[in-house]
Specification:
5 helices; four-stranded parallel beta sheet; alpha/beta
């Protein structure tokens, strides 16, 4: 189980900061205009990202409405709960990093409050409780 280190969330386009700790991209698609060197990632955890169908459904929903956000989170959390080998391996890598120090989940979306990294952090924090 992860340690007590906080899980930060930030856009991959924001500058790398020493306080980021281990940086993990949690998007299914590689962000445009970002080189692998500039991203400075510990890993790209695609298995922890929402499916293409989930992502497209949320982006096409009513401009990020509360109902669309709740529906997205419910479906995303159910997919994470269902897991699988790839999800378990990605979680093990993330858990090990969280034991060692701070972790930052990176996303490319423009919405800083309603994106998969924010939802994933919520799911991870619930899992710890």
């Amino acid at each position: 189980m992860p340690g007590a280190h906080a899980i930060a969330v930030k856009r991959i386009y924001d500058p790398v900061d020493a306080g980021d700790g281990a940086r993990f991209l949690v998007d299914r698609l590689w962000p445009r205009g970002v080189s692998k060197e500039k991203a400075d990632l510990a890993a790209w955890l695609k298995p922890l990202s929402p499916s293409d169908a989930m992502r497209e459904q949320f982006h096409h929903a009513t401009a990020g409405s509360d109902a669309a956000w709740r529906a997205f989170r419910n479906e995303y959390f159910a997919a994470l709960d269902a897991g699988g080998e790839d999800v378990a391996a990605a979680l093990a890598e993330l858990d090990a990093a969280m034991e060692a120090g701070p972790v930052t989940l990176l996303y490319a979306a423009k919405d800083e409050e309603r994106n998969n990294a924010v939802a994933l952090r919520e799911w991870l924090e619930r899992r710890e409780a």
